[in-house]
Hints:
Number of strands of chain A: 10
Oligomer: homodimer
Radius of gyration of chain A: 33 Å
Mean pLDDT of chain A: 80
Amino acid sequence: MRSCPEMAPELGITLPGDSAADNTGETDLSKSKFSQTLQKTVPSSAHETQVAMDDTPVDLEKNGPALRAQHPVLNPPRPPGLWDDLKTTVGEVFLSHEKRFRFLVKEPMSGTISILGSFFPILVWGRNYTIAKFKSDLLAGLTLASLCIPQSIGYATLAKLDPQYGLYTSVVPPLIYAFMGTSREIAIGPVAVVSLLLSAMVQKLEDPVANPIAYTRLALTVTFFAGIFEAAFGFLRLGFLVDFLSHAAIVGFMAGAAIVIGLQQLKGLLGLTHFTVKTDIISVLEVILKSAPKSWSPYNFILGSSFLTFLLITRFLGKRNRKIFWLPAIAPLISVILSTLIVFLTRADEHGVKIVKHIKGGLNPSSVHQLQFDGPHASEVVKIGLIVAVIALTEAIAVGRSFASLKGYHIDGNKDMVAMGFMNIVGSLTSCYAATGSFSRSAVNFSAGCETVMSNIVMAITVALSLELFTRLLYYTPIAILASIILSALPGLIDLNEAYRIWKVDKLDFLACIGAFFGVLFVSVEIGLLVAVIISFAKILLNAIQPGIEALGRFPGTDVFCEVNQYPMAIKTPGILTIRIKSALLCFANANFVKERIIKWVDEKGDDEDCTKGNAEGRSRPKLVILDMSSLMNIDTSGIASLEELQKKLMLHGTQLAIANPRWQVIDKLRLANFVNKTGGRIFLTVGEAMDAFL
Amino acid sequence: MRSCPEMAPELGITLPGDSAADNTGETDLSKSKFSQTLQKTVPSSAHETQVAMDDTPVDLEKNGPALRAQHPVLNPPRPPGLWDDLKTTVGEVFLSHEKRFRFLVKEPMSGTISILGSFFPILVWGRNYTIAKFKSDLLAGLTLASLCIPQSIGYATLAKLDPQYGLYTSVVPPLIYAFMGTSREIAIGPVAVVSLLLSAMVQKLEDPVANPIAYTRLALTVTFFAGIFEAAFGFLRLGFLVDFLSHAAIVGFMAGAAIVIGLQQLKGLLGLTHFTVKTDIISVLEVILKSAPKSWSPYNFILGSSFLTFLLITRFLGKRNRKIFWLPAIAPLISVILSTLIVFLTRADEHGVKIVKHIKGGLNPSSVHQLQFDGPHASEVVKIGLIVAVIALTEAIAVGRSFASLKGYHIDGNKDMVAMGFMNIVGSLTSCYAATGSFSRSAVNFSAGCETVMSNIVMAITVALSLELFTRLLYYTPIAILASIILSALPGLIDLNEAYRIWKVDKLDFLACIGAFFGVLFVSVEIGLLVAVIISFAKILLNAIQPGIEALGRFPGTDVFCEVNQYPMAIKTPGILTIRIKSALLCFANANFVKERIIKWVDEKGDDEDCTKGNAEGRSRPKLVILDMSSLMNIDTSGIASLEELQKKLMLHGTQLAIANPRWQVIDKLRLANFVNKTGGRIFLTVGEAMDAFL
Lengths: 695, 695
């Protein structure tokens, strides 16, 4: 396709790497000071890394800039290849496990303790646990339980499961996390967004109203797979996968999910019997408005909204005055007790107020036989498990990190993921659905002054006791109250300030945020997530391949060359056009564009719009184009071809091309592609040296 | 989520931009030398671009490095935002059209001529056209026609259309291109890959055997839309979209397509009646082996393969000796004439040799009424049109560019796309299917010494004459010969040398190449393309967000800091850890990873693996970490949050953080996010200045 006539290399130095690459694809091997140094720096297994150089050691201090500029620039050691990178990464994952194992073999006694301690951090911090700490944790745990019981029942209805499943989920997972996790403030249990996500996706496979048993089985199986994925992410140190949902996307997603959850609660608040399985705002509003007002129940609404007002007022007061943080924390429990009493005394359930009715009492039953690994939905269930795992981890890690950062300690993301995984695996065997760290309850836990994760144990025991003793008392609890408890927790998920800050700092980030928001709101939860991920990655792509170039000038009084737009005081050198490529990659997607732009700039005699100094000399055709490649991390075959064409076109009009500061990967590929020999291009360490060599 | 206690800024300089951002989101306005300079450099409409600075002009030459380092670094002009970039891009697209229009209004006479000339380059070069040139073009055109007639018929059968459609496509599109295009050597007509692509995708909608009329209508409609897309790409200057198929992907795709096309020809070569609509190698081989050998026809095979041998030998000879380039060019026509005579004389068609039979004579009929814009397949047809347009343009632009580069002239990609678009739109109205520039015929055209695109006109007229006069003579042409003509052209599509070169230079590029190859071969043409595009973009993503950091050292005898692995002679400064972030973006996908890595390096007291000099001082905990941000083109909210956390964690252990050389977008976002005030971080122009300030 491209046949470039081979040009005699203008450089005096022969490039063995260049010519050898043509013959055998390998570089000559010759011992030198540098190649020996190199063998220390690059893993020795990294293929033929020896550098082709003269045998005589070169004194770089004494020799002039020309030699300095070309010798080491053109003859760097070979960078580690794709294979080496892969080996290093995999090695890092298994090294830590292997080290531990070796230690175990050497010293079985202390090795076992050390391993147990690393899997169960409670064994480490438990040794220094004091009565004083326990007092704080007891108080925090009880406060947590008072908030957790009504919320758990509410979130179970959001997940379209029987109310007791919410309580089950607040018993086993917190206990397991308490033994294995590293965060001290996180409050484990069911959360709104994961409950919504689970029900939104599982009810497409099985109808929760028509077929509740099959639905529950699927929900538990999804929980099992979510646990498997979480544990696997932690064990394989893939914690970074959680970062793939950008902060902006999470802000948008959470806000959208909050509104969707709120809409779902209208069913309970209005006492509707028929509702839609879709979650988008259009479908939900359609159902509600179509049913209006004949099937709206005024009693449900009045009861629900008056308690919602109460909850919101306590929330507001708690925010105004940090000392009464416990008021919003226990307000839900007060609401439940009060409203249950009201309904019981007035027998309002006979006048259309919907009530919870029977909640199965007793501790978590086994659900081992409910897991379903075959059947028509197997692959779907695994997929939902993955999505639930990612969202659950994202929320938990965000919660854990923010509180750890407040108290100044470090949480081990990978260890925490393993803990989350185990708690969900064991949970799925004991009738729990997907649990994670809750934003709102962790904040209450923190405010209540918890010292360790012991508060979770206190909470779990309290919930377990309630399951044994008090479920009968919840018979008359109105569903509208559960809806209002969920509704009152939603404002915490909508962070307008953060959205505004994102808008201010980065418009494209805001696009991901708003995309996730509208995706969740108008289509579905999964689509919202997908939109967010796609916009986030599209943004990275756009940034990586933006076909931009920028003019450089000398910073007054220094040898530093910088962008003239960023530093208006920078001075251009007449007759020389210094250009920096703005993107990190010169590849198929932008190489041609960059080439055309450079040629256009050169043809326009310097550059019209950017030549702010407007000196007349700058307007004649430049004699030299210096291409500063310091931004360029990599180049591909299309990029190299473009550079070759650029060099040829510039030569046609008598303009020379010099390349400054090529990075390791770039210079290596240019050598492999025989670029220097083909074009006679000049390559220098810095822009300044390229300029000096020309002048 | 993150609440960082506001730290008093350590810097002596107040940063109005920082504090103002907190209050109103706008920066103070104060006139200064720099803000005036700025107004020239950035479009004046670019929101509030004034820089907040002291009123007194600062003499940068006289003041010390500290001021130099901080004043301009911390107070750059605002970079153009997303909106400005968009405006500039859109402006560039329409400016050229608008300029032309204004010129037309001012000087209607010369304006019209200039516009006509720019749309029809033939009006420009036609003025200098000479008899000598015409002689060359006439010879080239006739050679071209002799190759084109048999190939066109063959490609039409590959596209599952009647043979005359191939001939039609060699009449109208070349004529239109000749008037509008800018390449001189390109030979326009049907090509193998586009024919395959068209039939592979359209036959999923309509069966070409059971329902040939509906199939033809769809094929013509696809051609129409392909033309619309091509013209739109050209008019909107979206030529760069063609670059989105990386060179490596094209190499793999072409090779895969060649084998798939070859497999399709086995039907003709073996004289099979039943065949599969699938194109993957497994399905095709299955059909062939299942039918073997009972329905294989020996006469077809013997006839086809003997002429294939003849064609391949002429091809080989033509390659060995460039002087007899005409031999492979006219060999197909010779084969057609000879084989037709043989069949006619021996009446071999009565013994099972499949023949072309009736070819409808006469020039292109109108097909305006055959286009079908409604119906069940409308959206599918548009999609296929887009894919065909991209592949057709990719091939044509590659052909055009490579020959233009050989002769040293410039082809206007956008103008050529408009020409291709028009030729396909008009083609679809005159019974032509998708045409583009053919690799093999353009090479023949070039070798035959064509001077201008006039050779295409000669070829089109010759084909038109054949359509009028000679179609009846092709009645007895055996189909096996058409198959062997197509087969003989395929080796040119497989470029093993280039594949090897790609493997040598870039392993990931090779992965895209091989992915496209296997995708086409084992699944389908579209999947092959999709795989290639996905791998290519995944590679960009990987490169852009690689969470790498590298240690820097001072290049001996200079102020330049460079990577110690790339330049083993670089010297680290004891007690100071200088780190460069390797990726172009510090964003949600890698920010956390980069932060953790830096903290790990610092915790490991310098850095074990990279501290090649092994000096003892380097092993004590560094007092200062200098983060060289020169590679970083952009940063997002997650990236800023990571930097804030990094700064806090380093401070805990008494290590200071300094940032060197932040780029325009980066420093702007750090300012907007109030980073400097929050962390008291120090920001410098270069690593050297950061180091001097510390020492």
